[in-house]
């Protein structure tokens, strides 16, 4: 008996029905069919047997050789063997006659099936996704290289699958539209891995995929078209995962694949694209080492021109904006993301989670660091805290967090050190490898090579480090001390602190936030962390999470933030969110005054007037304990810059300062009031007040702890500005020169620093005066401080060449006409028109 094949038996049954002229068989037909078979062959097949054959009765056994022979004989064959041979020969003849078009049809069916499957896996509706320019660039360089195989690599979550799916689908459509005969066979790595499990060589796997019974038939097809192929043939294998199989099998698959490449390299029209994660490519670099100089291969490891295109980058700004336009339908232009927020939202996987959290209400200008942490939370929820092996994955990550070490800017774990843990949670470990939460790679050492476990990002690693600290339930002061002692850099400590703040705020606990002023490692990152807290209070309060809303009335965190972060650019939207909470009257006045001051410097007139209206609605006694009434000051400044009028009440309020300073319970508001009073002194020329108030700032500086580096530097800079008004430029310059270079990383400090040197340069006739002025103007232009920009232009106008004067005058004329302020130009207006 020849091998029983269900497909052949199904064919035999259809022939039986055809001979008996039964179109749609029913159980009653089996009796008549039994009689016809008996009459034609003189052999009996019972009605019951026929019911089993045609599925009307259950059977766990294959049909007997007697039944097969009888049915074959009824259809005109000598026996089942004769029928089987005929079928085999017919299939062989059909296979040998397969045309380029038939193979193209088969390949297209497979490709479209895989594309459709990928569409349903896409986190963003597939029709809203975009074509990635990097795919076209890669294919262009790949073709130019003349290589047979191109390895397109990319980090986890960089959108390789959707990008290549869209490219293949577009090529297939262009084939149809433009009558091109190229073949695109797009498949996933799982079919290749399954084939190797059955002992198929890569060539045999490809032959089977295309419908050839043997690899010899595939070779014959290839040879037929050696020099006259109607088009190109592209085999695209999506994401070959090394974590799905054992290392030994992966080595075998790749080595067979390399053999296949060598074999098909002789056909110039045959091209292979292999998608790999970058970590997989680097981990198995030893396997691919021969491909580095081999012209048959093109990848990031190649020495070929354009090899950098073989790695899929994150989304560009243009691609990101196009995605947003596709999703929400808006065509307006978008602001560039701040550099500290570019790293995450540009990764397609995390943009997908951002979309899941926000739906169509996407706005890049409103993305904050806290949004990144919410996205990571969503990512971890789906990849670690959900699905199979959930508890094992959590236990594994908790154990790995104890072994995390800092290596430069990266957090990693030595796999050798973690071997016992990995062995204990082998299945969970493989799940996390497959999901991209962790990845194995070589540490890059030449002599002391070792495999290390790295995390999708440092933020993921710090989540589990912070979770372990939080679960200790220790006092917040002890927690800060333990975090400060850790042998990791300040950036990693800050990332852990953000997670801890999120955990505490979610529980309605402000204890950790209230100690943010005393965290020693924050330094220049303190304002970013305070903005993060404001966002957490706002967005966790708005979410559906069952959290307790923290009370902020007379809160220590609010007090510190309002007194020390005066006009920190980019954070006004964060601190404005605190207005939705129950604040004390004093805190509300300072917060609204701060927002009004920033609006004044940016000359955002509507925002300024809105805050002034809110302040004017307060009872007069609300301002009684303030060092100076901020409503009055801001109104004076607005009147001066709008109309060029110096209110006579300015002198009255400034002269009342000594009395206010003598009162023990006055509220200063620190940096905000320092700058408000300074601006009043500038427009009134009241040098006596400048002298007296500079002493107040000097005493405050003496009381500051030296560890508060930035606060000391910022306050020293304000003190130096007052000293310039007191005609002490040498002392002022000497004090500013002692500032920490790291403070210049803060934009507000850098702007104030440039303004100081602009003023001091004008006094001392510094040769770099014009350069300093242009630096200050550039900062103001970049961050929207329109009023300060105009002020800086006026400062240098009299001391620059006439050709440069024209440029600045034209700019000032435009600003005055467009924004409606004059800055009290006085004589300059008459001189320059």
Q: What is the total number of structural domains?
A: 5
- N- to C-terminal distance: 108 Å
The whole-angstrom Rg is 37 Å
What can be said about the biggest beta sheet? 6 strands, parallel
Protein name: AAA+ ATPase domain-containing protein
Organism: Parapedobacter defluvii
Topology:
Elements: H1 6-19, H2 29-41, H3 47-53, H4 65-74, H5 80-96, H6 100-121, H7 133-145, E1 149-154, H8 160-178, E2 183-188, H9 189-197, H10 202-210, H11 215-224, E3 233-238, H12 247-264, E4 270-277, H13 278-283, E5 297-298, E6 311-312, H14 317-328, H15 342-345, H16 348-358, H17 369-383, H18 390-401, E7 405-407, E8 410-414, H19 419-424, H20 426-435, E9 438-442, E10 451-455, H21 458-470, H22 476-485, H23 490-506, H24 526-542, H25 556-564, H26 572-576, H27 585-602, H28 605-616, H29 630-643, H30 649-655, H31 657-662, H32 671-684, H33 687-703, H34 709-725, H35 729-737, H36 747-764, H37 769-783, H38 786-797, H39 802-819, H40 827-832
Parallel strand pairs: 1-4, 1-5, 1-6, 2-3, 3-4
Antiparallel strand pairs: 7-8, 8-10, 9-10
Helix pairs in contact: 1-4, 2-3, 4-5, 6-8, 9-12, 10-11, 16-17, 18-20, 21-23, 23-24, 25-27, 27-28, 27-29, 29-32, 32-34, 33-34, 34-35, 34-36, 36-37, 37-38, 38-39
Task: Provide key terms for this protein.
833 residues; mainly alpha; 5 domains; six-stranded parallel β-sheet; four-stranded antiparallel β-sheet; 10 strands; elongated
Summarize the structure.
The chain has 833 residues and is mainly alpha-helical. The chain is 59% helix and 6% strand. Strands 1, 2, 3, 4, 5 and 6 form a 6-stranded parallel β-sheet that branches.
């Amino acid at each position: 008996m020849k091998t029983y094949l269900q497909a052949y038996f199904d064919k035999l049954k259809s022939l039986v029905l055809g001979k008996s002229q039964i179109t749609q068989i029913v159980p009653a037909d089996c009796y008549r069919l039994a009689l016809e078979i008996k009459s034609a062959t003189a052999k009996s097949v019972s009605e019951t047997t026929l019911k089993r054959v045609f599925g009307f009765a259950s059977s766990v056994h294959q049909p007997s050789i007697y039944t097969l022979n009888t049915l074959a004989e009824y259809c005109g064959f000598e026996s089942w063997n004769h029928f089987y041979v005929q079928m085999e020969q017919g299939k062989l003849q059909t296979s040998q006659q397969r045309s380029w078009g038939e193979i193209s049809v088969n390949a297209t069916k497979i490709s479209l099936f895989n594309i459709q499957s990928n569409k349903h896996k896409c986190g963003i509706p597939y029709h809203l996704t975009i074509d990635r320019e990097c795919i076209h660039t890669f294919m262009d360089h790949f073709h130019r290289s003349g290589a047979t195989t191109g390895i397109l690599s990319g980090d986890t979550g960089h959108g390789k699958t959707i990008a290549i799916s869209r490219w293949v689908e577009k090529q297939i459509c262009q084939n149809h539209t433009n009558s091109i005969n190229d073949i695109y066979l797009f498949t996933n790595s799982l079919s290749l891995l399954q084939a190797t499990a059955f002992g198929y060589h890569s060539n045999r796997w490809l032959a089977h995929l295309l419908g050839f019974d043997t690899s010899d038939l595939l070779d014959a097809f290839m040879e037929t078209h050696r020099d006259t192929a109607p088009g190109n043939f592209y085999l695209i294998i999506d994401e070959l995962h090394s974590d799905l199989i054992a290392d030994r099998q992966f080595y075998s698959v790749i080595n067979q694949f390399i053999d296949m490449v060598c074999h098909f390299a002789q056909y110039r029209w045959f091209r292979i694209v292999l998608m790999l994660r970058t970590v997989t490519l680097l981990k198995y670099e030893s396997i691919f080492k021969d491909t580095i100089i081999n012209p048959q291969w093109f990848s990031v490891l190649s020495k070929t021109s354009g090899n950098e295109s073989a790695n899929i980058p994150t989304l560009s700004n243009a691609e990101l904006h196009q995605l947003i336009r596709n999703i929400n339908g808006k065509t307006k232009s978008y602001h560039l993301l701040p550099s500290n927020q570019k790293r995450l939202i540009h990764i397609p996987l995390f943009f997908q989670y951002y979309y899941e959290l926000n739906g169509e209400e996407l706005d890049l200008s409103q993305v904050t660091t806290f949004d990144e942490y919410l996205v990571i939370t969503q990512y971890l929820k789906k990849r670690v805290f959900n699905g199979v092996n959930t508890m094992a994955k959590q236990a594994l990550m908790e154990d790995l967090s104890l072994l995390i070490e800092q290596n430069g800017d990266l957090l990693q774990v030595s796999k050798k050190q973690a071997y016992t843990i990995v062995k204990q949670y082998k299945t969970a470990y493989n799940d996390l490898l497959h999901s991209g939460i962790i990845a194995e790679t070589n540490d890059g050492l030449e002599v002391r090579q070792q495999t290390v476990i790295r995390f999708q990002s440092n933020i993921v690693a710090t989540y589990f480090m912070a979770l372990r600290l939080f679960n200790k339930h220790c006092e917040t002061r002890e927690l800060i001390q333990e975090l400060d002692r850790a042998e990791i850099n300040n950036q990693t400590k800050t990332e852990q602190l953000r997670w801890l703040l999120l955990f505490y705020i979610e529980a309605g606990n402000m204890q950790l936030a209230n100690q943010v002023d005393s965290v020693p490692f924050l330094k220049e990152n303190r304002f970013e962390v305070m903005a993060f807290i404001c966002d957490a209070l706002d967005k966790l309060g708005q979410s559906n999470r069952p959290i307790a809303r923290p009370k902020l009335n007379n809160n220590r965190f609010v007090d510190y933030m309002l007194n020390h972060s005066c006009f920190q650019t980019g954070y006004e939207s964060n601190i404005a969110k605190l207005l939705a909470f129950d604040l004390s009257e004093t805190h509300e006045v300072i917060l609204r005054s701060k927002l009004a001051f920033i609006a004044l410097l940016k000359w955002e007139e509507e925002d300024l007037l809105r805050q002034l209206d809110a302040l004017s609605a307060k009872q007069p006694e609300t301002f009684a304990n303030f060092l100076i009434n901020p409503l009055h000051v801001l109104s004076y400044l607005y009147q001066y810059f709008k109309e060029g009028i110096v209110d006579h009440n300015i002198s009255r309020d400034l002269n009342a300062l000594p009395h206010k300073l003598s009162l023990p319970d006055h509220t200063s508001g620190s940096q905000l009031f320092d700058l408000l009073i300074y601006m009043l002194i500038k427009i009134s020329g009241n040098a006596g007040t400048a002298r007296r108030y500079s002493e107040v700032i000097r005493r405050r500086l003496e009381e500051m702890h030296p560890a508060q580096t930035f606060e000391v530097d910022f306050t020293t800079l304000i003190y130096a500005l007052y000293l310039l008004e007191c005609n002490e430029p040498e002392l002022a310059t000497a004090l500013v020169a002692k500032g920490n270079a790291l403070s210049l990383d803060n934009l507000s400090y850098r702007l104030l620093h440039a303004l100081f040197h602009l003023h001091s340069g004008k006094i001392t006739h510094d040769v770099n005066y014009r350069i300093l002025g242009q630096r200050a103007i550039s900062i103001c232009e970049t961050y929207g401080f329109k009023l300060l920009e105009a002020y800086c232009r006026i400062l240098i106008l009299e001391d620059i060449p006439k050709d440069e004067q024209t440029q600045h005058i034209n700019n000032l004329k435009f600003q005055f006409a467009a924004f409606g302020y004059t800055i009290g130009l006085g004589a300059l207006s008459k001189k320059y028109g």
